[in-house]
């Protein structure tokens, strides 16, 4: 029902209530049975157990569980049951599932915060008596009383209003209290922020009083609609989650295919069936980087810790990576791009713009501070309480030499005529120490100018002719075009017998002093942040409930509205279909006078064009869009609990510029995750090729199951995690965002992984061949000669040295290869020791690898033999080869700057 379109009488008739008596208790009870309580409903949540097990409905997770089972079976049948690998895999799965459960609680928390915002009590008229009741007991048709300082307990149509102003910023984005008027009847398409004959639940009365009839309660209120949006809209998967899910499916299927192919080839080559089954299954396990989910989680966690030190608190781990992919940042204006403090920025006399610290400035601002109800509190910090416009006037006067407290003492207020919406003026009468009297009037220029007969100029009073009047009108229009809120100030010296005169007498025959323009100014640091966003290929967008002129002025100053960008209002947006909005979305950089539903539509329109959208905001009205966006960023200081709980990230300093450093961090983390994936998969391909090629060539199996699992465990852990702390590249914010449509292996990464996997596999196979032909075969042949055996058949003996060397090279070459992953630039240019954690990881893992070969009990478990000095020398040379090969390739790339990139989308 569009209650703002109806007269007071029509509303009362439809709700079947009398304004002077209210509902009866009996009728109120009946309506509560029909409409329910005035509370926000909670979405029915799944049980903790159901949520937990739902986390396992993922292809990669299922493959990992299978990998854990197979890993144990392989080690068990190999005679040495090993719980380490399966336990690690299961721990990874459990941690990931637990994190998922915690993340799903966000919507419920947001709704709880909405509930807490509801007014606890309400003054209601029932059976001709004013009662104080719990706000949850209100029903449509209740008559409620509104006074300064009280929360509005439900949506209602005003029946009367006296100087009533209501703060609705958290619902509409309006930067200052809205002046209400019970007498007007509005058009059906009037925006939420312009419905001045209505009051909305959870808003606050800042001035005056009023009487309203409740029209909507609970989930039918405007804040209830927001609650529905939070419950209904699902948070989208992050780009990284999508990529890893796709990668996991491909790797899982590939592992099963590899397992089958190698097993079949082994049978064709007439190798022992059981041994081939164990080897193929182990290789399939090795093909899946089961440490990847844990490594990604650890990388994101480390990024979260770094970002927390930079005033960015991450509530959801994947949000870090999503920031790095952001292509659009939609920001609320009030309190996010601006300071949320009305500030006087310009004053004008008949001569034009004046300096505030001039004699005229002091004269004008002192009069504005006297005709003012704001309270100035002095101490260590200056604090002003009151209505935002009046606070701005008092602060401007104070900072330019006019202390309101001193003025009030010197010029005692003896009478006042409060502001009302009909006159648009406020007048106070003051008595000076010399017993003269002066009335001061402030208010809207249009209502003031025709009441003035003279104008103050250079200490003189000049008659207002058409010339002066037109000059003042032009000055007012000029300030209004700058989106300034303009207040006119005038005065009149009166005699003692006129002190208590009526408004018609006191507010006529005035001397016009000047104009004061104010605005909620933009944050200075945001200008640089917007510039950096554009440099990084990110489109900044302003979405606000404020007026379009104000929004455009701020957007132009910040650089958001530039290069032919357009602004659009909620009224125009309302008449557009989703398809039209999506088709034209790139035209607009400013959306003004929009509702919470509009904000969600805007976010979805950008998403429909393939954009990754970040949304910043602080109010209740921002919560649905924060949740719908790929990443929601709430303000930590001014942000409501609803906004914070609906967001993925909280900016603790309320600084829009902080999001830029967060984007940089996110990009760095995504780069490092790609490095880890690159490293793990190239290593795993190397393991696969070592076995695969050996079988094709008719060689003995170079590695056994337990060795494969060990190599996977060592190389998939510390080195990959250490790549996650690689310093962010200095030029990362000069690059375009990573397109969400791009596969994880685009831009030639898949080709490089395959080539490097071939390199590692070839080195391990070469080590095996050297050990097999130069050390194992001669030894076996001598043994056979001593036993008078004329024919030595492959496969009837164990290639101890070859297998040991292949085992060592496969592991150590991957450790050396991890340094290649650090950057696309040469190690010499970035510094070998600039990532000390990787150096430490290399030393620890190399020590572990050497230990299992050199310590007899461990050597027995892994079925290896001690190597001679020469064998170790060959092993070390082969293991270091990846550094030499890749460094040479980087030098060639730097020299010739190849333009062509191979791309294999996965």
From TrEMBL:
GO annotation, biological process: export from cell
Entry's localization field: Cell membrane
Its membrane topology: Multi-pass membrane protein
UniProt-listed Enzyme Commission number(s): 7.2.2.10
GO molecular function, one term: ATP binding
GO terms under cellular component: plasma membrane
Membrane-traversing stretches: 52-77, 83-102, 250-268, 280-302, 749-775, 838-859, 871-888
InterPro entries noted in UniProt: ATPase_P-typ_cation-transptr_C, ATPase_P-typ_cation-transptr_N, ATPase_P-typ_cyto_dom_N, ATPase_P-typ_P_site, ATPase_P-typ_TM_dom_sf, ATPase_P-typ_transduc_dom_A_sf, ATPase_P-type_domA, HAD-like_sf
Keywords in alphabetical order: ATP-binding, Calcium, Calcium transport, Cell membrane, Ion transport, Magnesium, Membrane, Metal-binding, Nucleotide-binding, Translocase, Transmembrane, Transmembrane helix, Transport
EC primary class: translocase
Annotated ranges, domain Cation-transporting P-type ATPase N-terminal: 2-76
Family: Belongs to the cation transport ATPase (P-type) (TC 3.A.3) family. Type IIA subfamily.
Entry-linked PANTHER family: CALCIUM-TRANSPORTING ATPASE
Name used for this protein in its record: P-type Ca(2+) transporter
Annotated organism of origin: Variimorphobacter saccharofermentans
């Amino acid at each position: 029902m569009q209650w703002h379109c109806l007269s007071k009488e029509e509303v009362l008739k439809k709700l079947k209530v009398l304004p002077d008596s209210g509902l009866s208790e009996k009728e109120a009870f009946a309506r509560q049975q029909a409409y329910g309580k005035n509370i926000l409903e909670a979405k029915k949540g799944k049980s903790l157990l159901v949520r937990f097990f739902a986390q396992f409905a993922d292809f990669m997770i299922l493959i990992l569980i299978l990998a854990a089972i197979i890993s144990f079976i392989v080690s068990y049948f190999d005679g040495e049951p090993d719980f380490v690998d399966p336990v690690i895999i299961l721990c990874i799965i459990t941690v990931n599932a637990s994190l998922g459960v915690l993340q799903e609680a966000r919507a419920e928390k947001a709704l709880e915060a909405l509930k807490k915002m509801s007014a606890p009590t309400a003054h209601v008229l029932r059976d001709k008596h004013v009662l104080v009741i719990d706000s949850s007991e209100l029903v449509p048709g209740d008559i409620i009383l509104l006074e300064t300082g009280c929360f509005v307990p439900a949506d209602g149509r005003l029946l009367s209003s006296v100087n009533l102003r209501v703060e609705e910023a958290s619902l509409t984005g309006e930067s200052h209290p809205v002046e209400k008027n019970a007498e007007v009847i509005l058009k059906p398409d009037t925006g939420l922020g312009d419905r001045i004959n209505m009051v909305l639940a959870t808003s606050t009365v800042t001035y005056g009083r009023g009487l309203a009839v409740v029209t909507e309660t609970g989930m039918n209120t405007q804040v209830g609609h927001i609650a529905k949006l939070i419950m209904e809209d699902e948070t989208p998967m992050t780009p990284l989650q999508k990529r890893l899910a796709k990668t996991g499916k491909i790797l899982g299927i590939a592992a099963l295919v590899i397992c089958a192919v190698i097993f079949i080839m082994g049978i064709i080559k007439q190798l022992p069936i059981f041994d081939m089954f164990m080897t193929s299954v182990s290789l399939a396990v090795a093909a899946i980087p089961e440490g990847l989910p844990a490594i990604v989680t650890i990388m994101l966690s480390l990024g979260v810790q770094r970002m927390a030190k930079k005033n960015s608190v991450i509530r959801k781990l994947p949000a870090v990576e999503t920031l790095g992919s952001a292509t659009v940042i939609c920001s609320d204006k009030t309190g996010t791009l601006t300071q949320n403090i009305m500030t006087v920025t310009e004053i004008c006399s008949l001569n034009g713009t004046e300096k505030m610290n001039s004699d005229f400035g002091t004269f004008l601002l002192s009069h504005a501070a006297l005709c003012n109800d704001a309270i100035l509190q002095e101490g260590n910090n200056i604090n002003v309480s009151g209505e935002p416009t009046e606070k701005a006037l008092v602060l401007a006067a104070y900072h330019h030499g006019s202390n309101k407290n001193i003025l009030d003492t010197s010029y005692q207020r003896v009478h006042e005529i409060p502001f009302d919406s009909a006159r648009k003026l406020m007048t106070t009468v003051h008595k000076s120490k010399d017993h003269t009297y002066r009335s001061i009037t402030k208010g809207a220029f249009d209502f003031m100018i025709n009441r003035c007969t003279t104008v103050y100029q250079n200490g003189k009073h000049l008659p207002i002719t058409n010339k002066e009047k037109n000059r003042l009108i032009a000055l007012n229009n000029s300030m209004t075009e700058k989106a300034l809120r303009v207040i006119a100030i005038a005065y009149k010296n009166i005699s003692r017998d006129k002190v208590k005169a009526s408004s018609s007498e006191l507010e006529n025959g005035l001397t016009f002093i000047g104009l004061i323009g104010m605005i909620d100014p933009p944050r200075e640091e945001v200008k640089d942040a917007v510039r950096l966003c554009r440099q990084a290929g990110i489109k900044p967008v302003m979405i606000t409930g404020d007026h379009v002129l104000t929004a455009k002025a701020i957007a132009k100053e910040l650089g958001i509205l530039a290069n032919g960008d357009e602004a659009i209002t909620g009224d125009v947006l309302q008449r557009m279909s989703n398809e039209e909005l999506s088709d034209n979305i790139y035209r607009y950089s400013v959306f003004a006078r929009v509702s919470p539903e509009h904000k969600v539509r805007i976010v979805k329109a950008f998403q429909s064009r393939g954009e990754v959208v970040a949304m910043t905001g602080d109010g209740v009205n921002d919560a649905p869009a924060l949740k719908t966006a790929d990443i929601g960023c709430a303000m930590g200081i001014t942000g409501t609990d609803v906004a914070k709980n609906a967001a993925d990230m909280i900016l603790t300093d309320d600084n829009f510029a902080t999001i830029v450093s967060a984007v940089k961090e996110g990009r760095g983390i995504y780069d490092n995750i790609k490095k880890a994936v690159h490293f793990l998969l190239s290593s795993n391909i190397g393991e696969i090729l070592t076995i695969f090629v050996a079988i094709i060539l008719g060689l003995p199996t170079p590695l056994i199951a337990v060795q494969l699992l060990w190599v996977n465990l060592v190389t998939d852990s510390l080195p990959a995690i250490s790549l996650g702390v690689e310093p962010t590249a200095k030029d990362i914010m000069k690059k375009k965002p990573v397109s969400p449509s791009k596969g994880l292996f685009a831009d030639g990464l898949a080709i490089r992984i395959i080539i490097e996997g071939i390199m590692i596999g070839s080195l391990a196979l070469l080590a095996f061949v050297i050990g097999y032909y130069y050390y194992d075969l001669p030894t076996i042949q001598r043994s056979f000669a001593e036993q008078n055996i004329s024919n030595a058949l492959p496969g009837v003996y164990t290639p101890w040295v070859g297998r040991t060397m292949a085992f060592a090279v496969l592991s150590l070459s991957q450790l050396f290869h991890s340094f290649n992953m650090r950057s696309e630039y040469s190690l010499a240019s970035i510094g070998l020791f600039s990532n000390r954690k990787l150096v430490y990881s290399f030393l620890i893992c190399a020590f572990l690898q050497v230990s299992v070969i050199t310590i007899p009990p461990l050597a027995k478990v892994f079925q290896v033999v001690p190597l001679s000095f020469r064998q170790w020398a060959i092993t070390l040379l082969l293991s270091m080869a990846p550094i030499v090969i890749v460094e040479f390739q980087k030098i060639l790339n730097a020299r010739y700057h190849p333009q062509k990139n191979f791309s294999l989308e996965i």
